[in-house]
Amino acid sequence: MSRATYSVAITQAVGESARQHLLRADRQEDLCFALWRPSTGRSRTTALVYRLLLPQMGERNIHGNASFEARYFERALTEASAEDAGVVLMHSHPLGQRWQGMSLDDIKTESSHAAAAYGATLLPLVGLTIAGDGAWSARFWQRTAPKTYQRCDCATVRVVGERLQITYMDQLAQPPRATSAQIRTVSAWGPKKQADLARLHVGLVGARSVGGFIGEAIARTGFEDATGIDFDTVEEKNLNRLIFATTHDVGAIKVELLGKHLCDSATADEFNFQAVAKAIYEEEGFRAALDCDVLVSCVDRPWARQVLNLIAYAHLIPVIDGGIAVRRNRLGELSAADWRAHTVGPEHRCMECLGQYDSGFVQLERDGYLDDPTYIEVLAKDHPLKVRENVFAFSMSCASMQFNQMLNLALNPLGQANSGEQLYHFVGAQMEPAQFLECRPECLFPTFIATGDRCPYVVTGKHCLSAQPDADGAFGDGTKRKNDRGFLNNARYAVGRWIKRIQTL
């Protein structure tokens, strides 16, 4: 599959409203304008369509085809400029199926309005076409020189909500050939579903125990494009559950080692794995994630989860999250082992409302306290940030639940894409009934939906302990940190009070 340069994403709610307006009962063509915000990855720019501007009386004409009056376009430009957004021109091909080409009239209409749209918003005009079967096609009109605008077709359009529905432009995202190694896989859901599934660009955030299992599933299922994001290295204590590492690999960068392993496991004719040895909260890791169609969260720290939570809503990239919790009693015996899986994004509850991370601990991690053993001592012995028990079998089971969540989201078997929030108890061997809940009324993340690069909530940054002190004790940010006992005792006391206060909220 060719790497996508341009893409469009729409929420399920906006997409359904557009569909109801554009696909008329009389099967005539129709049109409307909408607003979009950019989401900029390392190699892909995505237009996030967030609001329709439906025509008012006398602003558009229906005559088999459809046309609009100048005042309708001017209203769209005014609203886009006021909201620091771009303009989208949507229209319908009610008799078409799947990805749609453009007629000469379509090209003339969009190209002739590209300059005005760019002049008012400094963003390209985006064109969107919906076919009779609900499939979308899209293009950007990029300014390449004064008074010159070039049509740049999008490789994908994704509709994000209870399911992930993607339309591909076959010329830019060619449907892969099913290989002989995939015969049993393809027989489960058919060649068409396999072709769409295999073209998903999956981002694997965290190349550890669960990430290793999910990466193996991605490679063997026939996916063609995957990106791994992780800055960690292999340690001897990891070898009890890393399926891609041996004693000879201690010290190697996990994500690079995983990539080499998956290239050997892949069943696709062409398998492309991009290893990004960065944290998801660093700019390079963050932008790499924005190139993906779906992200799988295999992290256990609050800051990384906060970043993924934001991406799911602000950038319309669904995140499949999960986690494992193991507890022992006073006698040191296993008393509980639970693992969960859930999808995060529009039409789903966010990670913070799910209790997957505590926002109070994000700043602690940003300040480096969670990586300093001196400060960790103030936490309770069984605190989630301190407990690190894990078992090969538990990681394998959690990975299976997360991967199946992703398959359901993309395949939509019998119209049942939403797996809900799943929780399994190893002790007692019980699966809880799936829950389908909404975020708390005061939750901020649903308000960030489709804000993309314009999102006011900045979650990326540099870990304060990622830089090493120089000879004078100065760090990369220009600050100095004392190491005397008095300073450490005072800091431990202050952090301890902070943590206790957070725990009582």
Describe the overall structure:
The protein has helices at residues 12-22, 70-82, 104-121, 183-189, 191-198, 209-221, 254-265, 283-289, 302-314, 351-354, 359-366, 373-376, 392-411, 485-504, and strands spanning 6-11, 31-40, 45-53, 60-63, 65-68, 86-93, 125-131, 136-145, 148-153, 156-160, 164-168, 201-205, 225-229, 272-276, 294-297, 319-328, 334-344, 422-425, 430-431. The model is unreliable at 465-505 (pLDDT under 50). By secondary structure, it is of the alpha/beta class. It has a nine-stranded mixed beta sheet. It has an eight-stranded mixed beta sheet with strand order 14-13-12-15-16-17-18-19, sandwiched between helices. The protein folds into three domains: 6-168, Cytidine Deaminase, domain 2 (3-Layer(aba) Sandwich), CATH 3.40.140; 187-448, NAD(P)-binding Rossmann-like Domain (Rossmann fold, 3-Layer(aba) Sandwich), CATH 3.40.50; 468-505, no CATH class. Helix 6 (209-221) packs across helix 13 (392-411). Helix content is 31%, strand content 24%.
